Amino acid sequence: MPLPVLRFVLWPVPLSVPGATVPGMEELDRRERDILALERRGFTGPGAKERAIREELGLAPVRYYQLLNALLDDERALSFDPVTVNRLLRVREGRRSER
After folding, report:
1. CB-neighbour burial class of residue 81 (10 A; exposed 0-12, middle 13-18, buried 19+)
2. What DSSP string describes 17-75?
């Protein structure tokens, strides 16, 4: 007697994997993914992050932080990289509560 074929359903997509998407949901564009990738990196020394923002993304730091702040409120970013987005949301909320 043949063995039964096991079928695995891969739905829902595990959203804890960076880059995982939900069918029907638009993906992040290249710049948005690059912003999140830059935030995952650690920077040493003063000005290193701002230098990377200018050199790698071609953005002024002020514009970068504007885009990043908007990205944190985007569900697509949360599904793409939940660890980074949640960490940044905690930092943002902590700073808001200090004011």
Report:
1. buried
2. STT---TTSPPP-HHHHHHHHHHHS---STTHHHHHIIIII---HHHHHHHHHHHHT-H
Q: Which 3 state secondary structure label does DSSP give 13?
A: coil
Amino acid symbol at 18: P
Query: Per residue in 45-66, is it b (16+ CB within 10 Å) or e — as a string?
Result: eeeebeeebeeebebeeeebee
91 residue type, one letter: V
Q: Residue 35 corresponds to which tokens in the numbers above?
A: 């912003």
Residues 68, 94: contact at Cβ < 8 Å? no
Q: pTM of whole model > 0.90?
A: no
In the block, tokens 């995982």 appear at 20
Q: With 60 as the cut, is the pLDDT of residue 15 above it?
A: no
Q: What is the pLDDT of residues 24-49, one digit of tens each?
A: 457 999 999 999 999 999 888 889 99
